[in-house]
Design goal:
Chain lengths: ~325, ~260
């Protein structure tokens, strides 16, 4: 069986900026594959190239065996897309948006109606089906876009930050449905996300930074990059703590805005020793490594630590705020 | 091919649905032509008293005002293409497995339909201009309005296909619509215009539109040969040829969008 997605040296420039820089990966048919990376890493650009909306500057890619440049219409027939930014018509009702989509994808009307029913029910929008989308909250719009993307049962589903700003309950509902689709119809899923728990669901994850894939493995494989436990320490003098830890325990830590991170094989016994040796410690936490730690280890930065992360936080706050008014 | 027609239909349907939900816009856009008809028409009526039997300035301006109304609404409708780009809805269509040329066709047809619905209200108001229309005339006029609207909406679609921002679109459109309106012969006949202006008027598609409407409204009037420049057949052929070129270019433009 051919791979669902193949990318060879995929590159896209915007003037002088290299947004995607020689990316290589394959996604097997029926796989759930995730892209994890900070703002501006090139996730959306990659998805747009794969979905035939942007041409690569160089390199090539196939989706469902079709070339994304030369066989664009075959690719479009095979894929479903949920964009990062809104793409609904808010002067139409929820139902009208869904039926519009079904006509574009040639879904027979009878199937369209039953699937629409099922999907709207799933995301709890059945009672709002006849309402104009402009009266919806941000979270409701997101849920509607997700079910619209599933209406035509694509072989390969692209989800660009699918659950940004949704409450945990809706998120898990949506994941359940995606997994059901995936199990029953063998849908391949390519997604980008900021939520670590969602990345954990993926069969494999590519970590992307500055347009390059810096690691690609299963979630557990990636975590093996981080040696053992993670000990997180809050102190008033981070530099002094780093120096002391290097000297006494031969451990080099990583910094972000607030905390110092150490990796150690034996976290439980390391903590008392550390506290004894260094008096100026305000707070200590111990946990299993997460993908966040993997990112920190590989790049020396926290994934949300990059300037525009604030914008993202704002986006989340806005949708949360809108949902409250609902 | 089936996908092409299905897409044209659904894009057309969306425009019509949105239009019917905007009652206030319909009324607001009707105000302008009515003002022209009543103020310009009535104001200039006595100045244009000519010794031609069957000629009355108010009924002369009436088809011009219909043409103007169609011009502005059809142009205005293509603004929605820019909105769709900016608010992201266009992406939903661009990523779908449909020929993109269908977007241009659907949009142009949607814009012409809404322009006709709106212009249709002016047909009902014919008595205000001292014009009485038979049912047959109304049907022919509606058909002509559609052809005019389609040619104008095709220009709008072509420009909107190439523009990313509202400002850019409005800049080009203001540059186009005002001369089109003024040169259309809405307020004066071709033969009273100075010689240098006449060829310019003949370059204006709306000139043929207004001429076609006058041909029908003045069909039984002795003043017919004074108010029109050519036969309705010539008018319609010119409009169709013009539309064909514009919509063709518009469809090509959409097919090429990245
Ligand atoms: N149309 C464009 N014109 C110019 N630059 C662009 C364009 N689209 C993206 N970029 C740039 O390309 C880089 C990658 O952007 P991209 O949208 O792919 O990031 P991302 O990983 O999706 O980020 P986020 O998490 O914020 O969605 C960014 O530096 C961005 O500014
Ligand atoms: Mg993005």
């Amino acid at each position: 069986m051919t791979n669902a997605i193949e990318a060879f040296e995929l590159t896209r420039n915007f003037k002088d900026l290299v947004a995607v820089n020689g990316v290589n990966f394959t996604v097997g048919a029926g796989e759930i594959f995730g892209f994890l990376g900070p703002n501006g890493a090139g996730k959306t650009t990659t998805i747009k190239i794969l979905a035939t909306l942007l041409r690569p500057t160089s390199g090539r890619a196939t989706v469902s065996g079709y070339d994304v440049v030369r066989q664009a219409s075959n690719v479009r027939r095979a894929i479903g897309m949920v964009f990062q930014d809104q793409s609904l018509d808010d002067r139409l009702t929820a139902e009208e948006n869904m039926l519009f989509h079904c006509v574009l994808y040639g879904v027979p009307r009878k199937d369209a109606l039953t699937r629409m029913e099922e999907l709207l029910d799933l995301v709890g929008l059945s009672i709002r089906r006849k309402d104009l989308v402009k009266t919806f909250s941000g979270g409701m719009k997101r849920r509607l876009e997700l079910c619209r993307g599933l209406l035509h049962r694509p072989a390969v589903l692209f989800l660009d930050e699918p659950t940004l700003g949704l409450d945990p309950q809706t998120r898990s509902h949506i994941w359940e449905y995606i997994r059901t689709l995936h199990r029953e119809l063998g849908t391949t899923v390519f997604l980008t996300t900021h939520y670590m728990e969602e990345a954990e669901v993926c069969d494999r994850i590519g970590i992307i930074d500055h347009g390059k894939i810096i690691a690609l493995d299963s979630p557990s494989g990636l975590k093996r990059v981080v040696g053992g436990d993670v000990v997180i320490v809050k102190t008033s003098d981070k530099e002094a703590l780093l120096a002391a830890a290097r000297e006494r325990f031969n451990l080099s830590g990583q910094l972000d805005d607030e905390m110092v991170y150490f990796e150690t094989e034996r976290g439980e016994s390391f903590i008392p020793e550390l506290v004894k040796a260094i008096p100026d410690i305000l707070e200590v936490r111990l946990r299993q490594p997460t993908l966040e730690d993997v990112f920190l280890k590989l790049t020396g930065r926290a994934i949300r630590d990059t300037g525009s992360g604030k914008l993202d936080a704002m986006r989340i706050r806005r949708t949360v705020h809108q949902r409250r008014r609902q | 091919m089936q996908a092409f027609f299905a897409t044209v239909y659904i894009i057309w349907l969306r425009d019509v649905k949105r239009f019917t939900r905007e009652g206030t816009r319909v009324l607001a856009m009707l105000g302008q032509p009515l003002l022209y008809l009543l103020i310009m028409g009535q104001g200039l009526r006595s100045a244009f008293k000519m010794n031609i039997p069957g000629f009355d300035y108010l009924s002369f301006v009436y088809p011009g005002v219909i043409g103007m109304s169609v011009l502005f609404t059809a142009i205005f409708s293509s603004v929605s293409i820019i909105w769709d780009k900016q608010f992201g809805f266009l992406k939903e269509v661009l990523v779908a497995p449909v020929p993109r040329a269908a977007i241009a066709m659907g949009k142009a047809l949607g814009g012409s339909t809404t322009a006709c619905l709106q212009g249709g209200i002016l047909l009902i108001l014919a008595p205000l201009a001292g014009v009485s229309l038979g049912l047959g005339q109304i049907i022919v006029l509606a058909g002509l309005m559609f052809i005019i609207a389609f040619s104008v909406a095709s220009i709008g679609t072509l420009v909107a296909a190439r523009m990313e921002t509202m400002e850019g679109f409005h800049l080009i459109m203001n540059f186009l619509t005002l001369p089109m309106f003024l040169l259309s012969g809405a307020f004066f006949p071709l033969n009273t215009a100075p010689a240098w202006m006449q060829p310019l008027m003949r370059l204006d598609p709306l000139f043929y539109g207004v001429d076609a409407l006058r041909n029908v409204i003045y069909a039984d009037s002795p003043a017919l040969s004074y108010v029109v420049a050519q036969t309705v057949t010539v008018d319609v052929l010119v409009l169709l040829a013009f539309s064909l070129v514009m919509i063709g270019l518009g469809m090509m433009s959409f097919s090429r969008t990245e």
